[in-house]
Write a structure and sequence with these properties.
Helices cover about 40% and strands about 15% of the residues. The strands form 5 sheets. Strands 4-10-9-8-7-5-6 form a 7-stranded mixed β-sheet, sandwiched between helices. The protein has a 4-stranded antiparallel β-sheet with strand order 13-14-17-16, covered by helices on one side. The protein has 2 domains: about 160 residues, Aspartate Aminotransferase, domain 1, CATH 3.90.1150.10; about 260 residues, Aspartate Aminotransferase, domain 2. The chain is of the alpha/beta class. The chain is globular, with a radius of gyration of 22 Å. The N terminus is likely disordered. It has 15 helices and 17 strands.
């Protein structure tokens, strides 16, 4: 377990015992986990796609719309001031959560995808030209590939790809060879959504910064599994989504170094991102508002703050310990099934297992498991280059959070045996 954990950033709540996570009590905080599907108790193992929400987040959203709803930053009346205070309080929670230096470095977006597109459209538009290069990895989500392809098409730049090995690990020796004076940005995923690989981001940042190359980290999968410290990581941009970390959909965060954000042009034009508008010239607002045009997702932002409160109340030390136990248990159980092959066996992994079953398509696996109340994800997981590399059309993916149990993994294994027997 120590090997699996060593690449994590900062372990939260270090004084709390690692073995006292009360999973039964935690599950009571998530109403949907008591739901029955097709007559069976729900086993929700699709957390890498979207996590479930605790009652405190659900109640917080309801309370906002019932008692606090108003537009922010523009009103002098009581409700506008109340909503503005809650919105900015959530920004401060995010700042502390990822240890950013300033609230000016916290930009609210619709999610990880918009955050990456923001950087590609603004930093990229200003700094990337014909002949330049952008580096991504072979395990990136499409959201961290397509924006850079679009930028390359617009500018004449080239997209370079860090290869992976048969375990699903980055080949850092090849990455080092790619870095050059032509490299204008490295965009790398922290944890692969389809393989579970934990990438050595600190090392990648160090290698890139040695040549004065900025690094964007896609943290969509990492923020819920371990404590994040962007200053310790050293990255220049860090993007994540609320819905994968117990929060609402439609809300995300872009962290950026203040000096970089300040020098970047606006992403969108509209209300609140301006200081003064005339038909001759517009002057833009200060950070972070320069990048938050129009009425934002106020409720979602406040709900994200409540999700952070919940994660911190549980403690990342206990979360990490429990999830590593689940990962090891699932790996052992699945590798004992002769017809099952794991896709992604990196030495540093988060609680994600992707697998294929001999002569059974992943979609059939998912459909049959669903009839038993077991929710997994099947398909290419928005990582088609990964599927191509492993020469599979799709995989079945079970992804765990701290509210999952060994008994649920037993249900998954039982369901897999059912699939195998059905297709004999």
């Amino acid at each position: 377990m120590e090997d699996l954990l060593q690449e994590r950033i900062v372990v939260g709540d270090p004084h709390c015992p690692l073995d006292v996570l009360d999973v039964d009590r935690i599950r009571d905080d998530f109403p949907i986990l008591h739901k029955r599907v097709h007559g069976n108790r729900l086993v929700y193992l699709d957390n890498a796609a979207s996590s479930q929400k605790p009652a405190s987040v659900i109640k917080g959203l309801s309370t906002y719309y019932e008692m606090q709803n108003a537009n922010i930053h523009r009103g002098v009346h009581y409700l506008s001031g109340l909503a503005t205070g809650l919105y900015e309080e959530a920004r401060n929670k995010v700042r502390k959560f990822i240890n950013a230096r300033s609230e000016k470095e916290i930009i609210f977006t619709a999610g990880t995808t918009e955050a990456v597109n923001l950087v590609a459209s603004t930093y990229g538009r200003k700094h990337v030209q014909e002949g330049d290069e952008i580096i991504v990895s072979a395990m990136e989500h499409h959201s961290n590939i397509v924006p850079w392809q679009l930028l390359c098409e617009q500018t004449g730049a080239t997209l370079k790809v860090i290869p992976i090995n048969e375990r699903g690990e980055l080949q850092l020796d090849e990455f080092e060879k790619m870095l050059s004076s032509r490299t204008k940005l490295v965009a790398i995923v922290h944890i692969s959504n389809s393989l579970g690989t934990i990438n050595p981001v600190e090392k990648i940042v160090e290698m890139a910064h040695a040549k004065d190359i900025p690094v964007l980290v896609d943290g969509a999968q990492s923020v819920v599994h371990g404590s994040i410290d962007v200053q310790a990581l050293g990255c220049d941009f860090f993007a994540f989504s609320g819905h994968k970390m117990l929060g609402p959909t439609g809300i995300g965060v872009l962290y950026g170094r203040e000096s970089l954000l300040d020098a970047m042009p606006p992403y969108q034009g509209g209300g609140d991102m301006i200081r003064y508008v005339s038909f001759d010239k517009t002057t833009y607002n200060d950070l972070p508002y320069k990048f938050e045009a129009g009425t934002p997702n106020i409720a979602g932002t406040i709900g994200l703050g409540y999700a952070i409160d919940y994660l911190e109340s549980v403690g990342f030390a206990k979360i990490e310990s429990h999830e590593m136990m689940l990962l090891n248990y699932a790996h052992e159980a699945l590798t004992s099934i002769p017809q099952v092959r794991l896709i992604g066996t990196a030495r540093q992994k988060a609680s994600v297992v992707s697998f294929v079953i001999d002569e059974v398509h992943a979609h059939d696996v998912g459909t049959i498991l669903d009839q038993n109340g077991i929710a997994i994800r099947t398909g290419h997981h928005c990582t088609q280059p990964v599927m191509d590399w492993f020469e599979v059309p799709a995989t079945s993916r079970a992804s765990f959070l701290f509210y999952n149990t060994k008994e649920e993994i037993d249900r998954l294994v039982e369901g897999i045996y059912g699939v195998i027997n059905l297709f004999k």
